[in-house]
TrEMBL record, chain A:
Domain of life: Bacteria
UniProt source species: Marinobacter salinus
Lineage: Bacteria, Pseudomonadati, Pseudomonadota, Gammaproteobacteria, Pseudomonadales
Quaternary structure annotation from Swiss-Prot or TrEMBL: Heterotetramer of 2 MoaD subunits and 2 MoaE subunits. Also stable as homodimer. The enzyme changes between these two forms during catalysis.
Keyword set includes Manganese: no
Pathway info: Cofactor biosynthesis; molybdopterin biosynthesis
Name of the protein in question: Molybdopterin synthase catalytic subunit
Listed GO biological process terms: Mo-molybdopterin cofactor biosynthetic process
Record key words, sorted: Molybdenum cofactor biosynthesis
From TrEMBL, chain B:
Family of the protein in this entry: Belongs to the MoaD family.
Pfam families: ThiS
Keyword presence, Ribosomal protein: no
Alphabetized PANTHER family for the sequence: MOLYBDOPTERIN SYNTHASE SULFUR CARRIER SUBUNIT (PTHR33359:SF1)
One term of GO molecular function: nucleotide binding
InterPro entries linked: Beta-grasp_dom_sf (IPR012675), MOCS2A (IPR044672), Mopterin_synth/thiamin_S_b (IPR016155), ThiS/MoaD-like (IPR003749)
Protein name: Molybdopterin synthase sulfur carrier subunit
């Protein structure tokens, strides 16, 4: 299931729901991304996240489908927040249930890496001296390409 | 919106720099997203960046597209900077 939302999420609740994926599940891998105080700029005090409603959900759904073709994925959950976020706020959650840990780790990392370069989200860093849109990182593009 | 029109949307930095969130143009036979970019870039000023000086992503009906992708009446075309989510 995919959620794009302004509100926060509770990782414990998400984990509990992932655990209900059935007796065949032997591993759950989760990733949570947080707002940090530096990125393109130092002294970041918060972020603003914009997305393309509709397309974002379609793209992430496609990534989960791709992951399910490559690895054993029993259940997957992706949550991405939009709007204004403060330091240490949770931005993104990816959780994957699988029979085995290697598949759970790989699918979780694939979804996260691919999301960063293909899902239409844009981050704007906010500092005390101004705001600016974050540029796409070559390192993120390179990481995403390693899955091709 | 009539079916003869194409809706064009802009996001993030591009939306702010162009000062435009959405506009419509008339559909023409054989039109591609690249043709639309060239026409908009011809407006000059901030629109000139659509010439290709900066990296740009294109979507048609919410699926990733290329400058060669054809568009027709009723389509939604979006132009936006490389994405930075997660």
């Amino acid at each position: 299931m995919i959620s794009i939302q302004t509100g926060d999420f509770d990782s414990a609740v998400e984990y509990a729901q992932l655990r209900s994926s059935g007796a065949g599940t032997g591993a759950i891998a989760t990733f949570t991304g947080l707002v940090r105080d530096s990125g393109d700029m130092k002294g970041v005090t918060g972020l603003y996240l914009e997305h393309y409603p509709g397309m974002t959900e379609e793209v992430i759904g496609g990534l989960v489908d791709d992951a399910s073709k490559r690895w054993d994925v029993r259940k997957a959950r992706v949550i991405h927040r939009v709007g204004r976020l403060a330091l240490q706020d949770q931005i993104v959650f990816v959780g994957v249930c699988s029979a085995h840990r290697s598949d759970a780790f790989a699918a979780c990392q694939f979804i996260m890496d691919a999301l960063k370069t293909s899902a239409p989200f844009w981050k704007k860093e906010i500092t005390e001296s101004g705001e600016h849109w974050v540029e796409q990182k070559e390192s993120d593009v390179a990481r995403s390409k390693t899955w091709e | 919106m009539t079916t003869e029109n194409i809706t064009i949307r802009f996001f993030a930095r591009l939306r702010e720099e162009l000062g435009t969130e959405e506009l419509t143009i008339s559909a023409q036979p054989g039109l591609t997203t690249g043709d639309i970019l060239a026409e908009l870039a011809g407006r000059g000023g901030a629109w000139a960046q659509l010439k290709g000086d900066q990296p740009l992503m294109i979507a048609v009906n919410q699926a990733m597209a290329k400058p060669s992708t054809p568009v027709q009446g009723g389509d939604e075309v979006a132009f936006f900077p490389p994405v930075t989510g997660g």
